[in-house]
Automatic annotation (TrEMBL), chain A:
It holds the Pfam family SPC22. Essential component of the signal peptidase complex (SPC) which catalyzes the cleavage of N-terminal signal sequences from nascent proteins as they are translocated into the lumen of the endoplasmic reticulum. Essential for the SPC catalytic activity, possibly by stabilizing and positioning the active center of the complex close to the lumenal surface. Essential for viability. This is Signal peptidase subunit 3. Residues 232-250 have a biased composition (Basic and acidic residues). It is a single-pass type II membrane protein. It comes from the Eukaryota.
TrEMBL record, chain B:
The chain crosses the membrane at residues 27-46, 53-73. GO terms for cellular component: signal peptidase complex. Belongs to the SPCS1 family. PANTHER family: MICROSOMAL SIGNAL PEPTIDASE 12 KDA SUBUNIT, SIGNAL PEPTIDASE COMPLEX SUBUNIT 1. It comes from the Eukaryota. The keyword Transmembrane applies. This is Signal peptidase complex subunit 1. Component of the signal peptidase complex (SPC) which catalyzes the cleavage of N-terminal signal sequences from nascent proteins as they are translocated into the lumen of the endoplasmic reticulum. Dispensable for SPC enzymatic activity. GO terms for biological process: protein targeting to ER; signal peptide processing. It comes from Cladosporium halotolerans. It is found in: Endoplasmic reticulum membrane. Keywords: Endoplasmic reticulum, Membrane, Transmembrane, Transmembrane helix. The lineage of its organism: Eukaryota, Fungi, Dikarya, Ascomycota, Pezizomycotina.
Length: 250, 110
């Protein structure tokens, strides 16, 4: 500590240790904050039609188009160390021989829900305005132009979706998904913290963290294949997220 | 000109006395630990991680400001150098230290 340079080195060196200790304390502190997420997830409609994986494909596969209702309160997942949660819904159905092959899972919808203080990112989710609620009139500022990831008057983690279109149509490895039985929709998430570990959804109580209540649909079966002439194209539309421009040709 | 350069070099090098070095070390430890603890508490109670960041960085900046420059409180007890030796031609065996006496194990050596 006898000269300026040595003092700079010493202070900076100890600062790195202190910063690491602070980060560790933040990462552990989330265990002290109770969580009690709840969600109700229901199947609205499911249709199976033939389609192609991409325009130039000669392969014809069966695609399931699943619409759902989701009413979730995940506000308790947002604590001081939550940057965003990645929310996704999977359709899962048992394999042909459940004793040896695990069930198949396919994601039908997902969303990135940022905390209120997270930095702006174009990929984050914009919650649709629920039916019966007038969209707010804003003629004045640009800042209110982009919608929020939760309905009007809510907070991050509130999701109210009615008859929501899927983001992804799903198929099986074999290309056949019609008439598969015992399928369920399940809500999942990743909590992405500012500092610390990525946390998956859980259904068991663990310390102060209660498991997810609900978040699983009733068992359903994929219907039989419908001819393309009997299904309106408008019914098979998918939702696009904020990431729609990712990977598309310039 | 030389005097000016010497002064500039003294400020740049910022040398402090032994008590000052001990004080600077203790100040660093105390201030950084205190600002870390305060930043975590402030952030946790207000549930705002940005407050933790800014309080922590602010405390670190304050520590740098208080510890790094050559503040007068680091030079309260300067240790003076011994006077320069001036050898006398008559007493070659004895070194004249200009009145300063040096004892080693009770035996006078200088």
């Amino acid at each position: 500590m006898h000269s300026t340079v040595v003092r700079v080195q010493n202070v900076f060196g100890f600062f790195t240790s202190a910063a690491f200790a602070v980060a560790a304390a933040i990462a552990v502190s989330v265990l002290l904050i109770p969580q009690a997420p709840s969600a109700s997830l229901e199947l609205k409609n499911v249709q199976v039609v033939k389609g192609r994986p991409h325009y130039y494909s000669t392969k014809r596969e069966e695609y399931a188009h699943v619409k759902f209702d989701l009413d979730a309160d995940l506000t308790s997942l947002f604590n001081w160390n939550t940057k965003q949660i990645f929310l996704y819904i999977t359709a899962s159905y048992p394999s042909s021989s459940p004793s040896t092959i695990p069930p198949s899972e396919a994601v039908i919808w997902d969303a990135i829900i940022p905390a209120d203080n997270a930095p702006l990112h174009p990929n984050t989710y914009v919650h649709p305005t629920p039916k019966g609620v007038k969209p707010p009139k804003n003629k004045k500022s640009k800042s209110t132009k982009r919608g929020k990831p939760y309905p009007e008057g809510g907070s991050p983690g509130i999701i109210k979706l009615n008859s929501q279109k899927p983001k992804y149509q799903i198929t099986d490895v074999k290309g056949k998904i019609a008439e598969r039985e015992n399928a369920t929709l399940t809500l999942h998430w990743n909590v992405q913290p500012y500092v610390g570990a990525l946390v998956w959804d859980n259904r068991q109580t663990w310390g102060l963290w209660k498991g997810l209540k609900g978040g699983k649909s009733e068992v359903f079966s994929f219907p039989s294949l419908k001819g393309s002439e009997t299904v309106k194209q408008a019914d098979l539309k998918t939702e696009t997220g904020g990431e729609r421009n990712r990977g598309s040709p310039a | 000109m030389d005097a000016l350069l010497d002064q500039a070099r003294d400020i740049w090098e910022g040398e402090i006395d032994f008590r000052g070095q001990s004080l600077a070390d203790n100040l660093t430890t105390f201030l950084l630990i205190a600002s870390s603890v305060i930043s975590v508490l402030v952030g946790f109670t207000t549930q705002d991680i940005y407050k933790t960041l800014y309080v922590g960085l602010g405390g670190t900046a304050l520590t740098f400001l208080l510890v790094v420059p050559q503040w007068p409180y680091f030079n309260q007890k300067p240790e003076p150098w011994l006077p320069a030796r001036v050898q006398k031609a008559s007493a070659a065996s004895r070194v004249d230290l200009g009145g300063v006496q040096i004892e080693v194990d009770g035996k006078r050596v200088g």
